[in-house]
Amino acid sequence: MNTLFLSAAAPDTALVAADILKNGGLVAIPTETVYGLGANGLDEEAVAKIFIAKGRPQDNPLILHISGPEQIELFCHHIPQKAYDLAEKFWPGPLTMVLPARDTVPKRTTGGLSTVAVRCPDCDVTREIIRLAGVPVAAPSANISGKPSTTTAAHVRHDHDGRIAAIVDGGACRVGVESTIVDLTEERPRLLRPGGITPEQLLEVLGDL
Ligand code: AMP
Ligand code: MG
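A: This is the predicted complex of the input protein with adenosine monophosphate.
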């Protein structure tokens, strides 16, 4: 496969990347945390390619990247007010929320779980790609499983050149560490993974964690 290298600054990059995603291909996308390896999160066959390219175990769930809080209810249900409060304060940004998944989200994306992780990345080109694709983009960190997360396009190229359809170069990731993950499926919010948003910041909104 001939991997396309697309600069985030080029005018047709978002359109080209969105087209690839709509057609079931893989695109490495920049975010403020780390580079993601993206596919149409609603297309099981496309999502399967992520697991193969990364060598990722099938039961390790993916994060669904969405273009804003208004998309949460398309893919989640039983959404507590806390989720909207967190989105209002930290999105777009390095916070991922785990919520009950709607049936529209394939089990392949959730690693077989009935919940799904959602996040709105703070990266203009990537949100534009998601909007133009018209689908949520399932994306784990772009590194090969077991290796450090990728924070530059060159690093992604090293791992995936010739193995995925395209890499969008948005420069070095500003935050450089993974998103914080908070589980909102139960009464009391749970911190599942530390990351770009601190527990103290979360507590300002949640009151309990
Ligand atoms: P990565 O993007 O490579 O950091 O991987 C995403 C991580 O998000 C997974 O390894 C899980 O730790 C977490 N995650 C994704 N979906 C869920 C979920 N439904 N429930 C709990 N954790 C999740
Ligand atoms: Mg990872």
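The first strand starts at residue 4 and ends at 7. The radius of gyration is 16 Å.
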